[in-house]
Specification:
309 residues, mainly alpha, two-stranded antiparallel ribbon, 13 helices, 2% strand, binds 3-hydroxybutanoyl-coenzyme A, Ferritin-like, 1,2-phenylacetyl-CoA epoxidase subunit A
């Protein structure tokens, strides 16, 4: 039992559990679940924006979007690598994504209908990601916390490039301002769902917080995001699609309306606007990319043989 005592002492001292340390099997399983689903979200998240790479309105915007989509692939790679320190294999994790036994964030099951969507994803989706993921830099599991430090730095670039793009639309034509407002109307509520179900319905929060994996509750981070974003909407000259959104001086926070948890549950279950298309494209890319994995493995074997020779 002294292993359990040591594990608890490390958590109590707010220090890190490392791959070679003893850990409760449920702690390991929770981390594999969360890190794998985070990684799956990153690689699926490449698709909505990827649809606009060939249609970006300028070379500068295309270069920025290319860099961002490549970053998302890199985030997936860091996170699959972090998950593998827990004794799982990324090929198996990808199977679980492809067969639906592991999830990815609902936010990536919505279509990107106009160029404004690309900027709104940067502003709202990457903005929500930062609020949700900065606390993960202090997660009790070392490899996950360290992966998050670099990911959060890159997410900040993603959020800023999105906001800067939206300023250009704000200062453009009436049609561009309408396009901007339309995208905000479609992405606001799904972005709030990224923080997970209400605390009362969160099956994992209590244990994840006890293990210092999750440092703040779903509702707490959602509120932090609303409080940060509402003033930014004023700068953009857009109206957030929530009649109940208003500043509450007593609470020193914004009150906001009820999220449609039926929609959330439907999209989690696979019944969102783009679920089938996203998985189909993912599986096709994985199949068509088999030769790249085989070539990389053959090259690695050759290099290893040279070293041993
Ligand atoms: N989409 C899909 N599933 C969701 C979800 C969402 N938006 N929110 C919650 N869920 C699932 C949970 O995975 C859990 O199901 P499971 O037990 O089968 O895994 C169930 O709903 C109950 O939710 P809980 O609150 O109990 O689950 P967690 O404690 O895991 O909290 C979380 C959910 C806040 C998303 C947490 O897992 C987390 O912080 N994950 C790391 C960050 C992450 O994965 N973000 C996803 C977006 S990726 C991204 O932002 C990329 C950027 O480039 C834009």
């Amino acid at each position: 039992m002294e292993q359990q005592a040591h594990f608890e002492a490390v958590l109590a001292a707010d220090e890190r559990i490392e791959p070679r340390d003893w850990m409760p099997e449920k702690y390991r399983a929770t981390l594999i679940r969360q890190i794998a689903q985070h990684a799956h979200s990153e690689i699926i998240g490449m698709q909505p924006e990827g649809a606009w790479l060939t249609r970006a309105p300028s070379l500068r915007r295309k270069a920025i979007l290319l860099a961002k989509v490549q970053d998302e692939a890199g985030h997936g790679m860091y996170l699959y690598s972090a998950a593998e320190t827990l004794g799982v294999d990324r090929a198996d994790l990808l199977d679980r994504l492809h067969t639906g036994t592991q999830k990815y964030s609902t936010i990536f099951n919505y279509p990107t209908l106009t160029w404004a969507d690309v900027g709104v994803i940067g502003w709202l989706v990457d903005g929500a990601a930062i609020v949700n993921q900065v606390p993960l830099c202090r997660c009790s599991y070392g490899p996950y916390a360290r992966a998050m430090i670099r990911i959060c730095k890159e997410e900040s670039f993603h959020q800023r490039q999105g906001f800067e793009m939206l300023l250009a639309l704000r200062d453009g034509t009436d049609a561009q301002r309408e396009m901007l407002q339309d995208a905000v109307n479609r992405w606001w509520w799904p972005s709030l769902m990224m923080f997970g179900p209400p605390d009362a319905a969160s099956t994992n929060s209590a244990q994840s917080m006890a293990w210092r994996i999750k440092r703040h509750s779903n509702d707490e981070l959602r509120q932090r995001f609303v409080d940060m974003t509402a003033p930014q909407a004023d700068v953009l000259g857009v109206k957030l699609p929530d009649e109940k959104l208003r500043w509450n001086a007593e609470r020193n926070s914004y009150d906001f309306g009820e999220i449609d948890w039926d929609e959330f549950a439907r999209v989690v279950k696979g019944d969102g606007p783009c679920n089938a298309e996203r998985i189909e494209r993912r599986v096709a890319a994985h199949t068509e990319g088999a030769w790249v994995r085989e070539a990389a493995l053959a090259y690695a074997k050759k290099q290893a043989a040279k070293v041993d020779a």
